[in-house]
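Reopening closed ticket. The problem is back. First fold of the pair:
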Amino acid sequence: MTTQAETGKVDKNKIGETVKKTFPVLNMSCASCAVSVESTLKSAEGVIDASVNFATATAAVEYLPGKTNPSVLRNTVGAVGYDLLIEDEHLQQETLEAIHEKKSRQLKTKTIGAIVLSLPVVIIGMFFMNMPYANEIMWLFSTPVVLWLGRDFFVNAWKQAKHRSANMDTLVALSTGIAYVFSLFNMFFPEFWHKRGLHAHVYFEAASVVIAFILLGRLLEERAKGNTATALKKLMGLQPKTVTIIQQSGTQVQLPVEEVKEGDILLVKPGEKIAVDGIVAYGSSYVDESMLSGEPVPVLKQENEKVFAGTINQKGSFRFKAVKVGNATMLAQIVKMVQDAQGSKAPVQKLVDKVAGIFVPVVIGIALLTFGLWVALGGDNSVVQGLMAAVTVLVIACPCALGLATPTAIMVGVGKGAEKGILIKDAESLELAKKVNAIVLDKTGTITEGKPQVTDIAWLDDDESQKAILLSLEKQSEHPLAEAVVQYFEGAGVVEVSGFESITGKGAKAMVNEEWYYAGNQKLLTENGVIIPADLMQQAIDWSNDAKTVIWFADRKNALAVLAIADKIKDGSVAAIKEMEQMDIEVYMLTGDNEATARVIAQQTGIRHYKAEVLPQQKAAFIKELQQQGKVVAMVGDGINDSTALAQADVSIAMGRGSDIAMDVAKMTIISSDLIKIPQAIRLSKQTVNTIRQNLFWAFIYNIIGIPLAAGILYPVNGFLLNPMIAGAAMALSSVSVVSNSLLLKWKG
């Protein structure tokens, strides 16, 4: 009988309204775990569809609220050894972080304990087998490793077995469990073998070392993984916890942001974050909207103009009417888009996880087949030799080297990258970085410095004697461009000014030594009858054509100077873009800035493809278009407005001097914010991916050669049987080979 989930053609009008929710999934260790969770959820009553993403450790579930609920789903998944986090969204990220931190601490303790206890077992097993009470001492040290530190493997394997499924835990539990029980039998009943002319070997070292290595592999992997939860937590943290509401009586009341309703009047003081989307009702101020638009210049907000949650008020204060609250705000929509983009991306399946899906049952099958063939064909002592051969197969096939292959290479690659100023978070971005054939660059803060600076200045008759007056006047101004002028003249002397007046949308004026001076746009000078000399006017026209912002300085009669302010291109940007194009990578620039500015920046940097006046949602949509054309897309950005595009891209790269959100969402971060590091990051990814592949080769070659040897394939030819202890040593050697090969990555150019 075909289920609704299997057909994929559910008439939702017939089954009633469904609920779609995404839950973090805990305790998944491999791709087969994701398959197990997904099939379990799909088979649950009331579930219409379920999709489990191993890369993001999330389950997207669509269900009928009348037939099931998150608690039931959690219990269903818990029965097979996993867990769903069903807390309220506001608490979910904090809870998830606490769980991961606790798990990491426990894993570290278990790993250290397993290694310390396994060392004496290995030393005795390899070199001092004939010492008094050798077996008993090895039993004493290996028992806590197998039954205490490694108990999770057995618990999870049992849960899997109850539901007729298997994963990596199954293989670990079988191999170590059989080796341990077999060793116990041999230790307590050695005469059973002596009567048959065989020596009673124990294999405690194989059991304990296997568990120690698997725990080490998982600890390394846990550390190598990037945690996307912090990005969402910081995004949510942009909204203030409390707000000041103006009641109809005029009194001010502090309330939690959750209690804000549409139509409420809110007060925003200097330096405060705006809590919800709204319209300015009274007052005016400059608002830093860089977290939404990515542009560095704060925007003047006057009556009837829109303001957005998460943006930061500057020096003024105003009141605004709440229009969109809760999940309707633009900030909430960005949070939702980041979650959707991260969860909807198909994970790059690691080769280890693909093989793990068939590796476990195949190895178990080979072990059973080995035992069966020995019993049928082995002659005298066939049961004993068959059991030993089966145990040897399970021991040598234990996938500790597979578990170490990726995380050790990543850790070395990350260390090498950090030395070069490149932070790499995970293997998925590394696997794809070498395939990148399209790079999308944000303009502000990525190609450019990300802050307005005075680039040029021309004085009337080259007379700079009035610069102290210009500096003193601009120091009184709250306008963001005035700060660029103040910074440019930093260190110059100041004079006393009086009668300072800020003229909204035009500039400012003040009196020095009973003379009026003006600083602002051309309109300010024209309205006050100031004469503008032709040479300064021509200079201003030339700078405007270069998409620079022009500021005038004048006394009551004449223009004294003209300044150009722009967001300067970073020193390494042009060379980096040229190098990327030489690598056959198409370079695109997206910016929220105007067409003229975008065109000039593109011309100056040699970028052939660009788009201006692009909103955050449009950036992600543009990347999706490129992906639909079959391109592997890298996105490079530095602002919160880039976070959705970063999450959508195949490879996401953040500029380290940008926002924390961008760095958390991105899988790579250029710490120095120098674009020239991006080609270096791509080359490093190629080296690291090659190392991962080499590691997997070493991990698999031991299994390909070792499993047939363990099964006794050479016995009919020359009587050779692989001892389980040698199998354990071979397994350890495979791990040493993997780690050693990863360390070689450090010395590659």
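Second fold of the pair, where the issue appears:
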Amino acid sequence: MTFHERLQAWRYNLVPDHIIGEILTKRWTDNAIPFLALLVTIGVFGTAIPGFFEPFSLLESTRQLGEFLIVVIGLTVVMLAGGIDLAVGSIFALAAFAAVAVFFIFELPTGVALLASIATGAVFGAINGYLIGYLRLRAFLTTLVTLVIGRAIYDILIVNYGSLIQMSSASSDVWDFIGDGAFSGFSVPVISALVLAVVAHVALTRSRPGWHILAVGGSRRSAHNSGIKVRQTVFMSYVISGLCAGFAGFLIACRLSGAGPGTGLNMEILAITAAVVGGNSLGGGRGSVAKSIMGAIIVLVMNNGLIRLGYGTGTNQMVLGIMLAAAVILDIRWLKNRHKVLNELYVAPIYHRMGETQSAVPDSGTPYALNNRIAHTEYIGLGELEGPEDVVLDKDDHLYCGTRHGEIVRFFAPDYKRSEIFAHTGGFPLGLAIDKDSNILSCVGAMGLYRISQKGEVKQLSAETNRSYTSIVDDARLRDPNDLDIAPDGKIYFTDSTTRYDAHDWAIDSIEGRPTGRLLVFDPATGETRTLLDNYRYANGVCMAHDGKSLFFAESWACRVHRYWLEGPKAGTAECVIKDMPGYPDNINRASDGNYWMAWLGMRTPSFDLALRHPGFRKRMSRRLPQDEWLFPNINTGGVVKFAGDGRIVETMGDLTGNSHPMVTSMREHKGYLYVGGILNNRIGRYKLENADPAWTGPRSYWGART
């Protein structure tokens, strides 16, 4: 390795560039900017304002925050449903007046005043909801009209009845406690807001009505087509907003024991700014209660802080306007361009130097020298299949294979002319195996490990493994389960080729070259899956050794085969038995003579080997060129290799014509024939083997006379 290459290895292998992309894929990154803004806001005003963090000051501030947050949560529900509610300020004011009128003018109990406030909010919310949800009027104009009318009604009521409220001598300990009391330092508005926040969060994320609100906000047409009652959902979102504004109006009425011309003035601007600054989308369908809480704190602290620092109302309005504009621009631009940013940052290649290999050129005299033997095969299912990645045969000689359409097809022995759809998996079946009860086991791309009974019943066995503590992405999820095999005790060993990409993005994983593949085991007795080994460059084919005490698995992009020991002094460890091959290994299966068959899905090329030593080149390539112009591993030419348990190469076969099986992802020996599959093929090849045991079958090799 030259000094320049060593520098590249240090730069690209030790600096974790990929972490930035992984962070940006997480949903919680939407909260990062408002959270930082929250910290900065509290830090700046807490430092600039004397006594900002004193208990009395915090208690009074949180009282106002609780009232404000309740309004913001209600508005957030409307925004998540794809609407807007400009009337929350007037509803808030009318509800406050309703409470003080019932309590001070009519001298009724506090509970009745609460009901009057909530009823006021519910009525106005229902009016908005009916006009917007059922009559399908525009939300902005409708709530603007409600705002103007509601404000006008409130002003008339204050002018005519304000003096009666001020002259009243009504009093109540309950009223006073709600307005001024506290439980263990927490005021009633704060406790109410926290309870509402928890209920709203659970409802939006864990209940059907909450999912309906998010679905309607994301796409009303899609929500309608899926059977959701869109009009009813929109109606209820405005009712909820009205109820929240009404309850908040009751709380401020208790705190102030009155209502004045400024009650609820500009509340709608403050609430909308808080919801949007917190990260909730104006377009609907994207947001959370947590974002609303952060936004409410930011807006209220900034608004009150500017007042306490001596700035006028005009300054407050200007700052709020700037914040709202910035939040809207960020929301729209980020939502539109997020995938572009991820495309720029997520693929982070590393340095890798492939070892020198022996030639696979025909007649080169090496053990890997290819020939043209599997160009001459019989075809099974020619033109009827698409992507038979793996093949397996049962005790009755019937052949099974998967297709990229999610089906497992069964071809009936002895001539394999007749076939049927054996099962639908819902994903792309890759590796296949047969257990001792004749069930078909399959790794289904991007879905997990599945079992299909002889009746065609499909059952998921595993979709996740134990999560590592250091991973940012959810590496518990099986993203690319690839191949599998079954141990004598029934445990299923299988590979998950990469934790960063789904099955269809295998080529991008080859460009990046990061060792994120792993070997896993599923225990049917416990139903648990755990990771045995990791840090392999596209872990692939798996095959139990003939004695059942170890297994072989392929590392495709490193062109290596490893042996993992299940028993003996090396139990729990792996060793490399074949390295620096000229081809990329795929599935591995037993051979009748005690050796093992291995597929080559493609062949190494000097150009791609060289590119692996230049991660900067691959990084620029992935950013500047369309994906169909990237430099990929050569998968247009492959073959079949037989190797012994010690890694010695016994036999090599290929298709030099490229007409029959240019790419091979699997092969299975059965009664003197080799059945060849390929993920890009439209057929299965059947090749007559010389000197093979005509009675040998895979099921008998694994399970003996029971099969």
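Update: turned out to be a display glitch only; the data is intact. The first helix runs from residue 3 to 14. The CA atoms of residues 120 and 168 lie 22 Å apart. Please close again.
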